Amino acid sequence: MEIIEENQSGINIFKLNGRLDSNTSQGFEKKIFQAIDDGSKSMIIDFKDLEYISSAGLRVILKATKALKREEGKMMLCDMQDYVKEVFEIAGFDSFLRIVGTMDDAIQSF
Amino acid sequence: MAKNKVSFKLKSKLSELDTLCQHLERFGQSIGLSPKCIFEANLALDELFTNIITYGFNDKKEHTIEVTISHQNNKLIFNIEDDGIPFNPTKVDTPDLECTIEECKIGGLGIHLAKNLMDEVCYQRCKKKNILTLKKNIKEAEPAKKRMKG
C-alpha cells in the first residue's frame, strides 16, 4: 500500500492507495500517529484510490480518531468507493466517523 | 471452460493475504463474479485467515492453512482448514454496533464482518483440525429474477 502525505492549510491529508489489511495497517498506524504526536489536530483520509479495507484498517482509523478527539482535533474521511463504505456500515462505524463524499466537502468542514 | 473449483495452501504469515487475494481474483474472474462479490469474499476470508494466524497457534512453527473454493448452483462454497487450537468463530458474540466512539471496541469485528458477508458459516472440529465452511449466494449476472413478494 502507498500512503501519500500532504499538508493543505494546516490540514494533514493522507491519500491511501492500494490495500489496507492486517499486513499493511501497521505502516499506516505509524504514519498517522507520528502526525498526531507532531501536534496535528486536523486530518483528512482520502480513500479515493483505496481498493480494499479489512477490520485491521478500521482499527487504526478508530484508534486515531479517538486519539485526535482527546486532543480536541478532528478527522474526516472522504471519497470512499461503495464497497469500502459498506465495510464501515457493516461495522457500525458510519454512526460516529465523519464520512463525506468529496475532498472539497472534507476541507470545507474545517 | 472455467474450472469450478480451486484449492491452495497458505503459510501462517500475514504476507499470505496477497496470495489469498490473487487466488480469489483469478478464480472469481474466471467464473465471471462481480468485483463487489470478489471484494466481499476476499474480506470474509481475510478476516478468518488473519484470526487463525494471529490467535490459532501456540508455537512458533510455520503452519499451513488449506483453502478450497468452489462454485455450484449460484453458490460459492469456501472451505478453510487449519491445525491450530480449537476455535469456533460462529460462537463469538457480535460486537455492540450501537455504541459511541468511546465505547467502541474492535474485538470480534473481523468475525462480525465475515459472518455478515457470507450467507452461512459452519464450524467443525475434526481430526485435530478446525474446518470452516462458508457459503455465499451469488446473484446471476443479469437481473433476471424479480421478487414475487412484497
The major pleated sheet of chain B works out as: 5 strands, antiparallel
Helicity level of chain A, as a percent range?
A: 40-55%
Radius of gyration of chain A: 12 Å
Written as H for each helix and E for each strand, in order along the chain, the element string of chain A is EEHEHEHEH
- CATH class of chain B reads Alpha Beta
How many domains would you count in the coordinates of chain A?
Answer: 1
Could you say what the CATH architecture of chain A is?
Answer: 2-Layer Sandwich
When the domains of chain B are counted, the total is 1
Low-confidence stretches of chain A: none
Q: Strand sequence of the main sheet of chain B, in spatial order?
A: 1-2-3-5-4
SSE inventory with pairings:
The complex is a heterodimer of chains A (about 110) and B (about 150).
Chain A lengths: L1 E7 L2 E10 L4 H13 L4 E12 L1 H16 L3 E5 L3 H10 L7 E2 L2 H6 L2
Parallel strand pairs in A: 2-3, 3-4, 4-5
Antiparallel strand pairs in A: 1-2
Chain B lengths: L4 E7 L4 H15 L4 H21 L8 E9 L2 E8 L26 H9 L2 E7 L2 E9 L13
Antiparallel strand pairs in B: 1-2, 2-3, 3-5, 4-5
Helix pairs in contact in B: 1-2, 2-3
Describe the structure.
The complex is a heterodimer of chains A (110) and B (150). Chain A has a five-stranded mixed beta sheet with strand order 1-2-3-4-5. Chain A has helices at residues 25-37, 55-70, 82-91, 103-108, and strands at residues 2-8, 11-20, 42-53, 74-78, 99-100. Helix content of chain A is 41%, strand content 33%. Chain A is α/β, with parallel strands linked by helices and 110 residues long. Chain A has a single domain, classed as STAS domain (Transcription Regulator spoIIAA), CATH 3.30.750.24. In chain A, helix 1 packs parallel to helix 2 (55-70). In chain A, helix 3 (82-91) links the parallel strand 4 and strand 5 (99-100). Chain B is of the alpha+beta class and 150 residues long. Chain B has a single domain (5-137), classed as Histidine kinase-like ATPase, C-terminal domain (Heat Shock Protein 90, 2-Layer Sandwich), CATH 3.30.565. Chain B has helices at 16-30, 35-55, 109-117, and strands at residues 5-11, 64-72, 75-82, 120-126, 129-137. In chain B, strands 1-2-3-5-4 form a five-stranded antiparallel beta sheet, covered by helices on one side. In chain B, a hairpin with a 2-residue loop joins strand 2 (64-72) and strand 3. In chain B, helix 1 runs antiparallel to helix 2 (35-55) and helix 2 runs antiparallel to helix 3. The interface between A and B is medium-sized, with 24 and 30 residues.
